[in-house]
Automatic annotation (TrEMBL):
Cofactor: FAD
Source organism: Paenibacillus aurantius
Biological process per Gene Ontology, one example term: fatty acid beta-oxidation using acyl-CoA dehydrogenase
Family: Belongs to the ETF alpha-subunit/FixB family.
Record PANTHER family: ELECTRON TRANSFER FLAVOPROTEIN ALPHA, ELECTRON TRANSFER FLAVOPROTEIN SUBUNIT ALPHA, MITOCHONDRIAL
Protein origin, superkingdom: Bacteria
Cofactor mode of binding and number, as noted: Binds 1 FAD per dimer.
Protein name (database record): Electron transfer flavoprotein subunit alpha/FixB family protein
UniProt binding sites for FAD: 212, 237-238, 251-255, 268-275, 289
Length: 324
């Protein structure tokens, strides 16, 4: 029997987020012969992004486009999503493990009385069904989980699964009417965006991060210059945020953002366990610290013992020449 796999795609600044393509790839990974994939796009002014998504291998795109959906609200988005899910009776639903996915997936799971596996970093198939790999204890261990019944609800951590590629086909686009809930307990009055540079931290391929060692707000400038040359995002430790050197939107760690870039460059960060919880899964870690005993060197692939105010400008200069 044909089963339906649903991917809830997500926008940021009107553009599809990279994690949406990774969630689509997650659906393809569990797809069996005859299974169909529906990608759902909820928001306002979605025409061009729906066309874009249609070429990435889903069988159909369901679009709920309404001015009330311009900003995320768990109640309005649930009201947009649930009728589609009830109609298609999904076997599995995939979200990004983003602020939206972390909120909307459990709402969906509760309404459908379904189980959920969160923060998935790898998926493989087995005779007993798909196996989902997720980190435990701030990335110190991993567990493998399987669903014993459906529907399966999964959130995938950004930057871990490969993104879906254009498929050479174009999915049909179905526009679904939106019926607002009769009353709302949550009202979004204003959305305040704190800029963390041009590149989204959770999806960045390279992150240059500063700790208390940068010593001041101005101390972040050399890091921003290095980030600009590398096309990187700028992150921070809580030490730097608490000291007022940068906004909390940049904080990485247990109580900040969890990131998995290709390259993480930690500048003046000691490597406290709470910071490692947010970045230790980075593919390559480079640490710059003037204390050779700093714990960050225990997780670093490359370590530079030195003053970040000397080392970072030198790196910027060399990368500028190399990438010119
Ligand atoms: P420090 O530990 O003070 O380290 C600064 C480093 O800079 C030192 O290693 C020093 O040698 C180096 N340095 C100084 N000057 C220079 C220089 N000129 N050149 C090169 N190196 C230099 N922390 C997080 O980061 N993220 C979290 O999400 C988080 N959540 C937490 C949750 C809880 C419940 C608790 C209790 C703590 C949490 N923390 C978190 C805080 C964490 O324990 C550390 O206090 C924090 O990570 C330290 O930040 P830091 O490494 O920037 O500062």
């Amino acid at each position: 029997m044909s089963r339906m796999l649903v991917v809830v795609a997500e926008l940021r600044g009107g553009k599809l987020r990279q994690v949406s393509y990774e969630a689509l790839q997650a659906a393809k990974t569990v797809q069996e012969d005859g299974d169909r994939i529906t990608a759902v796009l909820i928001g306002s002014g979605l025409e061009s992004e729906a066309q874009e998504l249609a070429s990435y291998g889903a069988d159909e795109i369901q679009v709920v486009d309404h001015a009330d959906l311009a900003s995320y609200n768990p109640e309005t988005y649930a009201a947009a999503l649930l009728p589609i899910l009830k109609a298609v009776q999904p076997h599995a639903i995939f979200f990004g493990h983003t602020a939206l996915g972390r909120d909307l997936a459990p709402v969906t799971a509760a309404r459908l009385q379904a189980g959920q596996i969160s923060d998935v970093v790898a998926i493989h198939r087995s005779d007993a069904g798909p196996v989902f790999n997720r980190p435990l204890y701030a990335g110190k261990a991993f567990e493998e989980k399987r669903f014993t019944g459906g529907p399966m609800i999964v959130t995938v951590r950004p930057n871990n699964l490969p993104p879906a590629e254009p498929s050479g086909t174009t999915a049909g686009i179905i526009r679904t009417a939106y019926s607002p809930p009769s009353s709302l307990r949550t009202v979004i009055r204003e959305v305040v965006r704190q800029m963390t540079g041009q590149v989204d931290l959770t999806e960045a391929k390279i992150i240059v991060s500063g700790g208390r060692g940068v010593k001041s707000r101005e101390g972040f400038q050399p890091l921003e210059q290095l980030a600009a040359v590398l096309g990187a995002a700028v992150g921070a430790s809580r030490g730097a945020c608490d000291a007022g050197y940068c906004e909390y939107a940049r904080q990485i760690g247990q109580t900040g953002k969890v990131v998995t870039p290709e390259i993480y460059i930690a500048c003046g960060i000691s490597g406290a366990i709470q910071h490692l919880a947010g970045m230790s899964q980075s593919r390559i870690i480079v640490a710059i610290n003037k204390d050779a005993e700093a714990p960050i060197f225990q997780v670093a692939d490359y370590g530079i013992v030195g003053d970040l105010f000397e080392v970072v400008p030198l790196l910027t200069e060399e990368f500028r020449k190399a990438l010119a």
